[in-house]
Amino acid sequence: MATKSTTKFTANDVPSQRGRRVLITGANSGIGYEAALELARKGAEVILPARSLDKANEAITRILQQIPAAKLTPAVLDLASLASIRAFAARISSEFPGESLDLLINNAGVMAVPQRELTIDGYERQFATNYLGPFLLTALLYRHLKRRSGTRIVTISSGVANQAKIEFDNLQSERAYSPMFGAYSQSKLADLIFQQELQRRLTASGSPILSTGAHPGYAITNLQTSGPAGVLPLAMRIAMTVLKPFASQDAAHGALPTLLAATATDVMAGGYYGPDGFQELRGDPVPAKIAPLAKDLALAKRLWTETERLVGVQFTP
Ligand SMILES: NC(=O)c1ccc[n+]([C@@H]2O[C@H](COP(=O)([O-])OP(=O)(O)OC[C@H]3O[C@@H](n4cnc5c(N)ncnc54)[C@H](OP(=O)(O)O)[C@@H]3O)[C@@H](O)[C@H]2O)c1
Fold first, then answer.
1. Residues with CB under 6 A from ligand 1
2. Which domain covers residue 105, as residue numbers?
């Protein structure tokens, strides 16, 4: 469990982002939106890909109402489609060639899809959206990240990673499908393993780029309503209802671990951040517990290799 914060990190502590170009997925909603808003407030130019141009533009309109001078680029990206990711990466390459990005935040996600769904590529929807898509996106955009300190790749995981496991014979839930504690949890553990393994590989290659991670605790966003209604086990639904009034936080607070991981000057290489309260559900952002499986080097190596095969790309940072 995280230790209590002594110096509180707030959105005001985000250093100036002037001159920095940020790409954040899932920024039309929830913690991604709040993170994009604060980064724009501090002067970052923000690329906001969403599943439709309308959704991206709607988020941009909301941000501009607060920050009229913000520089924001809408785009279309469906992380559940390898072709969409490739098309989006190609657009970034032509519109922002060379080493053009300072920060990539892999934030978008879906939770507890009621029935097992396969993507157009034949992969389970949560594993594809939450993990395979961000892996491919990072691999394709890696050459556009500036080779200098301050450049970061931030991957959003979840507290449920602590209870998860990686089942190589059930990565696509082909053997059994459990929306929350199977598929979703596995995808978020895979995110954490990726974030940690990416840092190891960046370090080994002498890269100054950092791979950091965060989880928002229990933040009230569209995640709870767009996915799981009615599919969570009864005990989980009761626990969430009971916990909500005193163990949840709003999306703006949920975005603080992301903002810390993305911008604080004193983050650790491979640092992973979450709230400091009970069970890391709410509170001020501090270093979070890293699930023991996310420290398993052999598991990380195997998952990386298998992921390269699934997304059809070799990623050598
Ligand atoms: N809220 C929590 O308590 C909590 C806890 C642990 C971890 N997290 C993680 O935090 C991240 C953000 O979630 P949130 O709580 O802010 O939820 P949210 O409000 O539902 O936002 C999720 C975002 O991901 C986007 N998204 C979903 N599927 C996508 C796809 N196929 N391609 C591209 N974008 C897609 C959504 O777009 P649409 O608007 O089109 O659906 C939305 O913008 C997720 O990775 C989630 O797993 C959240």
1. 25-26, 28-32, 50-51, 55, 77-80, 107-111, 129, 156, 158, 188, 215-216, 218-219, 221-223, 226, 254
2. 11-308
Instruction: Give 246-303 as a DSSP string.
Output: HH-EEHHHHTHHHHHHHH-TTPPTT-EEEE-SGGGSSSSEEEPPPPGGGG-HHHHHHH
142: annotated active-site residue: no
Q: Are 162 and 291 in contact (CB under 8 A)?
A: yes
Let me know if residue 146 belongs to a domain. yes
Average pLDDT for residues 173-201, to the nearest whole number? 96
% of the chain residues with pLDDT over 90:
87
CATH label of the domain that carries residue 119? 3.40.50.720
What's the domain count of the chain?
A: 1
Contact 151, 209 (CB under 8 A): yes
Pick the catalytic residue: 33, 123, 142, 184?
184
Residue 236 falls inside a structural domain: yes
Indicate the top mutation candidate among 156, 162, 221, 289 to test ligand 1's pocket, ranked by most ligand atoms within 8 A of CB. 221
Instruction: Kindly report, residue by residue over 202-219, the tens digit of the pLDDT.
Output: 999 999 999 999 999 999
- Minimum CA distance residue for ligand 1 atom 46: 109
Residue nearest to atom 47 of ligand 1 (CA): 109
pLDDT above 80: residue 235: no
Inside any domain, residue 297: yes
